[in-house]
Design brief:
This protein is α/β, with parallel strands linked by helices and 327 residues long. It has twelve helices and 15 strands. The two termini are 36 Å apart.
């Protein structure tokens, strides 16, 4: 396989690149930054912004599979930045694939495209896009995912994967943010503390992309569709967080705040940050409050049935590896 990975220097992108290399595939990584460690692995690296349609077109030439994992993530920031990178950037990737006759495109989406602030328990592929989004990130990802699925055709087979809460060694987001907040005394149980969530170990998320690409072709069962990806075993979120904190010598989360109060505080802080043009992101937002207080678990049967998704690393082993990487 001659594969191109956008965002190949990122957390998930790097895992996809390493999975491809382990199979002996030829890999090109497209990222905005420089990643000499990828070059040392034998990866062709291209520095380009998703907004640069010409650079993308040149980098994708000759590929037979594109994994589009690059995105602007986060819960706070200007709307234009999210839509320029996540929507227009995805449009440019699709156009580049079409221009060069690339037959396969696997897009990294997010379950947040369906998140409406309510509990989703063992939700399946029939879960619709949210009607009202609580942040620009999920709104832009939903628009981008829709573009990818609509691009599915006899010339370009596409699918989208929605891994939930990716964690593992080199995680720059989930685990570091939790530990940082705990150390600063800024963690509180939001809601009743019984909510369950699906996590995804990073290697399983990467392997899902490779598994989907392997059989992706016009008329394939998963062509033109989106799939939730995660561990087969969900976790009680706050119990898992307490175990993570204990491994680092930190005490359990004891402060509590109701879900309604957290959402109200989040809305007020968002308003203040916008009105006063404050730097950074608010300590609480409506989206974060909703995520921390609700259950979101997903049905993995469609991914297993349609393209053979399998969990190669168990939740227990993934957690052990993650904790070991923290030192």
């Amino acid at each position: 396989m001659k594969a191109v990975v956008t965002g190949g220097g990122g957390f998930l992108g790097r895992a996809i690149v390493e999975g491809l290399l382990a199979r002996g595939d030829e890999v090109t990584s497209i990222s905005r930054g420089a990643y000499p460690e990828l070059q040392a692995l034998g990866v062709r690296t291209v520095r380009a912004d998703l907004a640069d349609a010409g650079a993308l077109r040149a980098a994708i030439a000759g590929a037979d599979t594109v994994f589009h994992a690059a995105a602007k993530a986060g819960v706070w920031g200007p709307r234009d930045e999210y839509f320029r990178t996540n929507v227009e950037g995805t449009r440019h990737v699709i156009e580049a694939c079409r221009a060069h006759g690339v037959p396969r495109l696997v897009y990294t989406s997010s379950p947040s495209v369906c998140f409406d602030g309510a509990d989703h328990v063992n939700a399946g592929n029939d879960l619709p896009y949210a009607r009202r989004f609580l942040a620009h990130y999920p709104a832009s990802k939903a628009r981008a995912e829709a573009l990818v699925l609509a691009a599915n055709s006899p010339e370009l087979a596409t699918c989208a994967l929605r891994p939930h809460l990716i964690f593992g060694p080199r995680d720059p987001h989930l685990v570091p943010r939790l530990l940082d907040r705990a150390k600063k005394g800024r963690l509180a149980i939001v809601g009743d503390g019984t909510n369950e969530v699906s996590l995804t170990y990073v290697d399983n998320a990467a392997n899902a992309h490779l598994q989907a690409a392997e059989s992706l072709a016009p008329g394939a069962r998963h062509a033109g569709k989106a799939y939730f990806i995660g561990q087969a075993q969900p976790v009680a979120l706050w119990t898992w967080i307490d175990e993570l904190l204990a491994s680092q010598g930190l005490g359990p989360v004891t402060r509590r705040v109701s879900a309604q109060t957290a959402r109200r505080v989040g809305a007020a802080l968002e308003l203040a940050w916008r009105a006063l043009h404050l730097p950074g992101e608010p300590p609480m937002t409506r989206f974060v409050a909703a995520q921390l207080s609700t259950s979101h678990t997903y049905d993995l049967a469609p991914a297993r049935d349609d393209f053979g998704y399998r969990e190669d690393v168990s939740l227990a082993e993934g957690t052990r590896r993650t904790l070991a990487s923290l030192g």
